[in-house]
From TrEMBL:
This protein's name: Radical SAM core domain-containing protein
Protein keywords: 4Fe-4S, Iron, Iron-sulfur, Metal-binding, S-adenosyl-L-methionine
Pfam hit, one: SPASM
Top-level taxonomy: Bacteria, Candidatus Harrisoniibacteriota
Species, as recorded: Candidatus Harrisonbacteria bacterium RIFCSPHIGHO2_12_FULL_48_16
Domain Radical SAM core: 151-291
InterPro entries: 4Fe4S-binding_SPASM_dom, AdoMet-like_SPASM_containing, Aldolase_TIM, Radical_SAM_PqqE_MftC-like, rSAM, rSAM_sf
Co-factor requirement: [4Fe-4S] cluster
Domain named 4Fe4S-binding SPASM: residues: 360-426
GO molecular function, one term: catalytic activity
Amino acid sequence: MSSDDKDSLKKRREQALVEHDQRAREITQWVKEHKGVKGLVNPYVTSVTPDSVNEIIAAIKQELENGRKEDAHILLNVMSYLQSYDFTTADEAGQNTQGFCLAVSEVGIALRHLRINPKNAMRYLIYRYKFKTLANRLALFDFVPVLHLESTMVCNLRCIMCYQSDPKMQGEINSARVKTMPWDLFTKVADEAAARGCCAVVFAGRGEPTLNSRFSDMLRYCHDKGILDIKFNTNAMTLTEAKVREWLSLGSFLTIVFSVDAADKETFEKIRIGADFDKIVSNIRMFNRIRREEFPDSPIRTRVNMVTFRDDQDAEKARAFWSPLVDEFSARNATPEQSGSIYQYGPDGVPLNIAPSKTCSQLFGHLYVWADGTVNPCEDDYLSHLRLGNARTESIYDIWNGPKMMQLRIAHMSGRRSVCHPCNNCSRC
Ligand code: SF4
Ligand code: SF4
């Protein structure tokens, strides 16, 4: 490359960085000024009735009367909660509730488990209880409750609010020797998670998970290992009939989240650069047709999680458009860290210190394994400043309970979050 070409490339990169940073600032500003959409939810349509709740209560009683000791107090609490169940409970996240809550969709999943394998119904209820109450109270589990695996760090789109549109992230991808999680690394981590009784694996991270050619094998492997709650996000651009049949034939309680942020082609394609709105809609319709015609009993559920951060996104319009196409729809305003600005300090060059005295619950509920084995506490820190270790050479158990993770928890819990970057620019708590 001539020196002129090098100069021009450097200038283009610098310009891209300036544009990204400017866009991130605009999104952050918009989020600050718009408190509108807090949590618009159309819940999963299930056949949960008072009789079916009673069926779960009876199964818990039976389990306890049979002499179950492990986690018996949790099952008692769940039983007591279900005895006066509120059928309007819609939001399964439940992270900010005072006590314990199960969304109707979660009760529906427990019920499906009960009818297939009652032991799994008990495991599921205990896992949801622990995750929603204990992680919320910053209780430390022996092993991470929800493990996130990045099947690939690359994506076919460049959505404007995403890490993928940050030139620094593209630099990481270009220089990475391993961009797609090798099978042996995946099985090492999945085996350990299953052996430790981990119930939840989410295929998430910084890329589009379905681009890994062995992605369906990964789902099957987790299912066969007894992971109860498997989830992945997809932009739905690469869906094919063959893939859809592979997923539906798993018989797994899989949750597929379609990442869409608008109801009309023009807005959608302005946000999701490289996407084809019509193709995505037709792919999701194809998924629905195959499920309806060939796998009517599939426990797979689909969801749209819309994130709002611009004036031209109409959440109500989006709900009307997407609700008939998926089992569940939810819309929320973006958080500042979802705008891609987590590494940006304020105009005076000092950290934003958005939540200086708050402890991030992420440090008690989640762990991320990137495609090359790097382990990180969250995906908001997509450039891995907080890197904790590498799953190739260390166990997840050792990393989760290791000194780096502990130091991070202690810094947060003792009011020293401001010394951790990018926690000092992050609003999560
Ligand atoms: S599809 Fe997902 S991972 Fe890809 S650029 Fe868009 S938001 Fe990012
Ligand atoms: S506070 Fe820190 S650990 Fe928590 S999500 Fe933000 S950057 Fe990640």
